[in-house]
Amino acid sequence: MGSLIKISPSVLSADFSKLGEEVVSLEKAGADYIHIDVMDGHFVPNLTIGPEVIKKLRPLTKKIFDVHLMISPVDNFVKDFANAGADIITFHPEATPDVSKTIKLIKEHNKKVGISLKPKSKIDLIKDHLNQIDLVLIMSVEPGFGGQKFMPEVLEKTKAVRELIDKNNLNVDVEIDGGINFENCSKAKNAGANILVSGSTIFKENKGDLKRNIEILRNN
How far is residue 109's CA from residue 88's CA, in Å, rounded to a whole number? Predict the structure, then answer.
């Protein structure tokens, strides 16, 4: 299973005063994706970065930009983030009046589509859309801030999503984000996640040895 696991470090935990250097360091350290959290202070209680920042980071790496939009109404921003260089655009079903329309909009910009479920969001919100998307992002903390504690109760949901995908023979990634560390990463994998998002653990453990921390998460 190890080689199939992808690691998507969250730049929410990076040093924002040298974000470009941090992204380059993550690429050198063997990150598979670069996870970028976009928050609007409205859908979630925090503000982070906009399309301009992504546009500036884009020339620095060829890594996949895994962009998680925690913004509402999300349709108004899809074009800007697509043009800025996002490769995967993930949104929340609660952030749009019409999930199918948002999926279609993202695909029109030739981007991969992800849908994210907050800890309390039900699988029913995405069940009928699984055959149209590329990724399901399970939040294992309430979205809004980095450094929160992992919520083990979402593992059941992760398992159920993975079973649904496999049962229907779909090629959909299951990503998990929130408090992922060396202790719980194997539980997330066993539940069916194949992409792990991690911020604090990658940037802070082992004195910030990015390569080592990515390897531990991938292989633990």
Answer: 11
SS3 content of the chain, % helix, strand, coil (to 5): 45, 20, 35
Supply the range of the domain harboring residue 126.
2-219
Tell me, yes or no, if 177 is annotated catalytic: yes
Q: Provide the pLDDT confidence category of residue 144 given band limits of 50, 70 and 90.
A: confident
Look at the pTM and tell me if it is higher than 0.90.
Answer: yes
| pLDDT score of 196 more than 60 | yes
Instruction: Tell me how many domains the chain contains.
Output: 1
CATH number, residue 207? 3.20.20.70
Mean pLDDT of the 161-180 span: 97
What is the radius of gyration, based on Cα positions, of the chain? 16
Q: Which of 40, 66, 173, 177 is catalytic?
A: 177
- What pLDDT is stored for residue 162 in this prediction? 97
Contacts of 153 (CB under 8 A, 6+ apart): 119
What integer pLDDT is reported at residue 146 of this predicted model?
Answer: 75
Choose the catalytic residue: 37, 40, 66, 134: 37
- Is 37 a known active-site residue? yes
Rounded Cα gap, residues 172 and 162, in angstroms: 9
Q: Look at residue 75 and tell me whether its pLDDT is greater than 90.
A: yes
